[in-house]
Amino acid sequence: LVSRKWRVQPTVLDLGDGVTIGEGSLAICAGPCSIESEAQMEKVMAHLLENDVRLMRGGVFKPRSSPYAFRGLGMEGLKVFHRMARERGIKIVTEVMQVSQVEEMHDYVDVFQVGARNTQNFNLLDALGGVDKPVLLKRGISGTIEELLSSAEYVFSGGNEKLILCERGIRTFETASRNTLDLNAVPILKAKSHLPVIVDPSHGIGIREFVPQMALAGVLAGADGIVYETHETPETAASDGAQTLDFDESARLIRNLRRVYQLR
Ligand code: PEP
Ligand code: MN
């Protein structure tokens, strides 16, 4: 069902209030790795609005390698995130980690993110197949393109056709970067599937100073959108600061993304 053979027309998701994801426009989604506080969200949202970006990412349930690392503000944080975003006309993308969260998060999210560690959590995918909100599905840490499409098929066949595929880098033998951003996946996914494809250069390379060029390369590779991490002071971010852009870098990237998109 997610194949181009089944549906030739590209799928374009309408999130309302003029925010769309899919062919015909470039979706830009930015925000911190983790939602940390009202003050932090206030600053990020102001930055996004100044740059005419109305899709914000930010995790409240964080999958961390260490149990001692910051694991997110949970539902309390999500409720504040949602209220502040609504007040400003911003749509939110946030990670759901387990089946039981789908229902409690439902009314407070615009897009459910499935993280790379959960791409093959088939129970979670089944649960998301039954909701009426878009799902941003990340490629698994060591997942093949075919496996990503199979995971998308779970959600789609469950009845939820609002899906976005995300290339976020895979684990390879290379240790010079956090992950290996597989830009090959972009044209391949676009050819194989009618679903929108976006690129996450932040997790893809994991090195702040190189995030912008990989984001731009993602657009040239044919992505329908880019999702990346930004924070007022990346040095103090609760998670992923080393791959997070400050607002100046972010504003420059947004300008360049739009320029490069025009060249396609
Ligand atoms: C994130 O988006 O902050 C995240 C945890 O991403 P991934 O699942 O791709 O590692
Ligand atoms: Mn992150």
UniProtKB/TrEMBL annotation:
Transferase is among the record's keywords: yes
Annotated DAHP synthetase I/KDSA domain ranges read 14-253
Transferase recorded as keyword? yes
Q: Which UniProt keywords apply?
A: Transferase
Q: Which domain of life is it from?
A: Bacteria
| One GO BP annotation of this record | aromatic amino acid family biosynthetic process
- Give the enzyme's EC designation: 2.5.1.54
Molecular function GO terms recorded: 3-deoxy-7-phosphoheptulonate synthase activity; aldehyde-lyase activity
> What's this protein's name?
3-deoxy-7-phosphoheptulonate synthase
| Species this protein is from | Hymenobacter properus
Classification of source organism = Bacteria, Pseudomonadati, Bacteroidota, Cytophagia, Cytophagales
Q: Which part of the entire sequence is included in the shown chain? A: 67 to 330 of 334
